[in-house]
Amino acid sequence: MMNLPDKFESFNEARRTGFIKAKELKESGKKMVGVFCTYTPVEIPMAAGAVTVGVCGVSEEPIPEAEKVLPRNLCPLIKSSYGHAITDTCPYFYFSDMLIGETTCDGKKKMYEELGKVKPTHVMHLPNMQRGEYTYKLWKEEMKILKEETEKALGVTISEEDIKEAIKDKNEERRLLKEYYELAKLKPSALTGMELHQVLYQSGFKFDRNELKAELRKLIDSMKQRYEEGNCPVDKDKPRILITGSPIGGISEKIIKTIEDSGASIVAYELCGAIRNNDLLVDEENEDVYDALTQKYISIGCSCMMHNDNRVEMLDRLVDEYQVDGVIDVVLQACHTFNVESYRIKEFMNNKKNIPYMAIETDYSKSDTEQLRTRFEAFIEMIEDGVCVK
Fold first, then answer.
1. Is the CB of residue 204 less than 8 Å from the CB of residue 341?
2. Best CA proximity match to 37, nearest among 100, 81, 89
3. Exposed/middle/buried for 1, CB within 10 Å: 0-12, 13-18, 19+?
4. 177 — alpha (psi -120 to 50), left (phi > 0) or beta?
């Protein structure tokens, strides 16, 4: 019998439900692996028969406890993740058998050292660029090391056939998620920005793989039917916005709701856990499973990479495919790589695509909501007036 945290009864209903769900999963004999980033090749722990679940913090609640160890001027996602871990307030961290991280940024690297004192943590050495034979060989070797470390941590043996089956399984999910979010290509979009975000985010917490895929299929069909029947939730004249930048799980309501309340339609998220992660499939025809995984995961266009052309190329395509009228670049406070790269994205949007662009920097608090609302309203008004914001 697995014990719940001592403070379980003080949690709100949603969190208690999460703990009970995770507890029942573990008591059924399943292993749970906590992951932090889209660079994690989840097919490997999946091949071990484990459930993978995101453990990035999305609440400001545990940050004060985290700041007793971590500096205040650190990314809120990192502080929230660590805070939930040391306060036993995240069910998925609490019941994880191991954690997998990557060397994506300096803040996370040092945070992982502290997490390793609480829970078995394997950190993959992610190359800092996507070019060159050495980079490719390094990341491929990290795939093999992860397989060995997962076997040790979970007490299992993973065959290449297991990995091939996991690749097919995960690709099926990605295809369904792509089919869902591509409903926003319609004009007007068949989805609100919140409908789009919630499905992409919540799909990471559905542990029954077959049930998840069946639910996605049913949802896609119902949304198509809703649209065909003329019950569109979005006004056709609203400016179409693409969101790019840092993960927004901890600020989704502040960003999404405020933008759409300000008169726009969010049609695409070039973000971790959204298009950035699901756009490229793993090659199922490649007999070398480690080569196939390396090709997919080294190609993700994140700002932690030098010469991050893949992100720009994706944005170039998305602006056209989703008929985007404006781009909002969301940067979490102290997320330096996205903050620095925002200049390149601005130059590209203004000079190459002639698309209005704005960048905001924020944290997990709600204190700047009205300030953001004022900025969003002004940005949307300029789009409607045909002004390309420089």
1. no
2. 100
3. exposed
4. alpha
Q: What are phi and psi of 358, to 5 degrees?
A: -140, 150
Residue 263 phi/psi, 5-degree rounding, is: 110, 15
Q: What type of residue is 226?
A: R
Digit-by-digit pLDDT tens for the chain (390 residues) are: 578 888 878 778 878 888 999 999 999 999 999 999 999 999 999 999 999 999 999 999 999 999 999 999 999 999 999 999 999 999 999 999 999 999 999 999 999 999 999 999 999 999 999 989 999 999 999 999 999 999 999 999 999 999 999 999 999 999 999 999 999 999 999 999 999 999 999 999 999 999 999 999 999 999 999 999 999 999 999 999 999 999 999 999 999 999 999 999 999 999 998 999 999 999 999 999 999 999 999 999 999 999 999 999 999 999 999 999 999 999 999 999 999 999 999 999 999 999 999 999 999 999 999 999 999 999 999 999 886 655
